[in-house]
UniProtKB/TrEMBL annotation:
Lineage: superkingdom: Bacteria
Pfam families: DUF3293 (PF11697)
Family matches, as InterPro entries: DUF3293 (IPR021710)
Protein name as annotated: Uncharacterized protein DUF3293
Species per Swiss-Prot/TrEMBL record: Tepidicella xavieri
Length: 142
């Protein structure tokens, strides 16, 4: 499925297994390939039909310092705010590996092309995008 990617299969597998936790009024977890009734409820409350789970942390899955990750995430938040997008804080965390959780945002109403562009701008290997069906998909960018 991801055979044309430059990203190694172990990293892609980790992305597929990660729990994408959405904070906010009603916290919930997104998992790749599994419909999220909580996400669909959030869509209805905000009158949207798609969302993207994005981070600015650890460019191209290279661990960087906590201050650099904080700066990158702040920059992503500022860009979302500048674009007047609605977003909820979250964290992507693999349930069993040692990779630290990455602060993230669930951005409501962000179409796939705009989400891919932001992911590329913030040097990410992949993003999570959810369409109208409420099923998170791993979108590999490289």
């Amino acid at each position: 499925m991801f055979s044309d990617s430059v990203i190694d299969s172990v990293t892609i597998q980790a992305y597929l297994e990660t729990h994408y936790r959405v904070h906010g009024e009603v916290p919930f977890v997104l998992q790749i390939g599994q419909v999220s009734p909580d996400l669909l409820s959030l869509y209805a409350r905000h009158n949207v039909n798609c969302a993207a789970f994005l981070t600015g942390c650890n460019p191209f899955s290279r661990a960087v310092s906590e201050p650099e990750n904080r700066e990158r995430q702040t920059s992503l938040g500022a860009e979302l705010t500048r674009r007047s997008l609605t977003f909820v804080e979250g964290i992507g965390q693999h349930p069993s590996n040692n990779w630290p959780g990455e602060e993230s945002f669930l951005v409501l109403g962000l179409d796939l092309e705009a989400a891919k562009t932001l992911g590329e701008r913030f040097e990410q290997n992949a993003i999570v995008w959810c369409g109208a069906d409420g099923v998170p998909q791993l979108i590999v960018l490289r």
